[in-house]
Amino acid sequence: MTERTSVWRYFDIWLAAAVLLLTAYGILMIRSAVTGAPALEGHPVRQLYWAAAGLVVMLVFAAIDYRYLASAHWYIYGLLVLALIFVVVAGQINNDARRWISLGFIEIQPSEFGRVFIALTFSQFLASRRDRINRFSNTIVSLIYVGLPIGLIFLQPDLGMSLLFIVLWFVIIWLAGLPLSHFLILAALGILGGVLIYPNLADYQKARITTFLNPEAASPEDVFNVDQAVISVGTGGLFGKGYLQGTQSQLGFLRVQHTDFIFSVITEEMGLVFGAFVVLGLMGFILWRIIRVANITPDPVGKLACTGIAAILFFQTVVSVGMNVRIVPVTGLTLPFVSYGGSSLITLFMAIGVVQSILMRHRKQDFG
């Protein structure tokens, strides 16, 4: 019991504090974003409940030895694939997309959980095949491993999450030692695949890409929300218009302002200094603490998993901020810990719990 309790001395309180601060900031901005929208007025309270649940989940996953989860990676992977198959066949449909499993009182999005579980299970998968990392056949097998859930997520359809899984695959296998020649071959195949996949995209996904590439030729309806987001960011200035004082969100010009375009609300009301710098500064600190764990753990699985989780947070942040300022197409990826969403928030806390578990057991005497 003493040995098991002692690992908590390595718990990263600074990482946990940064996550809680960013989540609290997000709840405040969600409250502002939904002001004047009666149908959404309960969202801030729900997000607060999910944050409390997420905190419990983080502590639970920190207490669980991540090596037990890694050793059960095939079972976790199988359950994930089954859940994604169920979503495609009989999932809940919202906004023309079938991405959720409805439990009556809550809707769960398996792909949100999948990004965390794949970061861990794929790390174990590669760590157990270290002696085959230079074989191209191993690279193909790894593509099949990640490609199955990606294909099921793409069918929902969810292009943004599919791209996130691709980035996750690349970051982890690159850190594991993917030869450059393999990468060049896969890059060529990826370009060919993109050409073949584009005709099969949903109409709204094609519209997002064409609108990004040629906004002048797009219809006013297709560019309306991105235009409003850019206006929000541009008019915020250094210090913003003040909390609850944003015109684009408060007057209803900006849509889905509590999820995809929360960054626009933040920069309009809080400005560059108290808005963008605070959010990106806290996220940068969180990423640094996670990479620190990856650097100090002697376990290859822990190292790869931490790097994968950092890649998830980094990619989602870059894409979410980028689509608010029109430097990347709109993909539907939300701003981690800030945007509204129960599955997203709880699984992100779960990811931090996995990182804490790896940190708490990083010392060789605790690892053996």
Q: Short summary of the structure?
A:
With 368 residues, this protein is an all-alpha fold. It contains 16 helices and three strands.
Account of the 3D structure:
The longest helix is centred in the C-terminal third of the chain and has 35 residues, at 262-296. This protein has one domain (9-362). The chain is globular. The protein has a three-stranded antiparallel sheet. It is mostly helical and 368 residues long. The chain contains 16 helices and three strands.
Biggest sheet overview: 3 strands, antiparallel
Please tell me the total number of domains.
1
Give the fraction of residues assigned to helices: over 70%
**H and E order:** HHHHHEEEHHHHHHHHHHH
What secondary-structure arrangement, pairings included, does this model have?
Elements: H1 2-6, H2 13-33, H3 43-63, H4 66-71, H5 73-90, E1 92-94, E2 97-102, E3 107-108, H6 110-127, H7 136-154, H8 159-175, H9 180-197, H10 203-213, H11 220-236, H12 247-250, H13 262-296, H14 300-324, H15 342-360, H16 364-367
